Amino acid sequence: MGHIEATGWIAIYAAVVSTCAFALNFRTWIENRPLLHLSLMVDGMIVSPGSGVEEKDLTILTVTNRGRAPTMITNMVIFEMNSWWQRIRIRPEKSFVVANPQMAGYPPNVPGDLEPNKKWTGFARPRRDLMPDWPNHRYWIGVYTSHRDRPYLIRLPKAKPGPPENSKKV
Q1: Pairing between β-strand 112-114 and β-strand 71-80 as defined by DSSP bridges
Q2: Which of 38, 67, 103, 148 holds its CA 20 to 30 A away from the CA of 52?
């Protein structure tokens, strides 16, 4: 076995340093983008004080930007996808755009800017004539944003039959 000369050690050192610099830049690139988290409330209800607008049977989507960059929410959508293959490819059986995902009587919230550490809330009113099996089917709710071509999606949970646990009959 041969002995490594000084130029060989310098080349190894340069390779290690450049690999570390690339890894740091890649990490910074990943961290400095919008990172959206979706949460869903099914059978939501808005109760306003006094004689305000009250709505029932809402599906409420909350989107939180946990990243370091702002983004813009351009559309709220509902997809019916019956297989994992449709989900991966984003090729739904049926697709719906929620044109007015705001509370009744409020100004439109799409397109809407979503700054880091802020929340956006969208409301969907299920149309039983278009989606008769809501929410007992494979529906996904999500948003399209300005920084990405694919939507952010969350699956609508299936409804549980009967009253909730720990409920008492009055």
Answers
A1: antiparallel
A2: 38
Other CB atoms within 10 Å distance of the CB of residue 58:
17
Cβ-based neighbours of 3, under 8 Å, separated by 6 or more: none
Q: What is the DSSP letter of 18?
A: H
**SS3 state at 67:** coil
pLDDT tens for residues 60-94?
A: 999 999 999 999 999 999 999 989 999 999 999 99
- Is the CB of residue 64 less than 8 Å from the CB of residue 39? yes
CB 41 within 8 A of CB 5: no
Distance CA 40, CA 60 (A): 6
Contact between 120 and 98 (Cβ < 8 Å): no
Decide if 33 contacts 70 (C-beta within 8 A).
Answer: no
Find all residues with CB under 8 Å of 35, minimum gap 6, and list them: 65, 66, 67
Tell me: pLDDT of 170 over 80: no
Q: What is the pLDDT of residues 48-61, one digit of tens each?
A: 765 666 788 889 99
The pTM of the full predicted model, rounded to 2 decimals, is 0.78
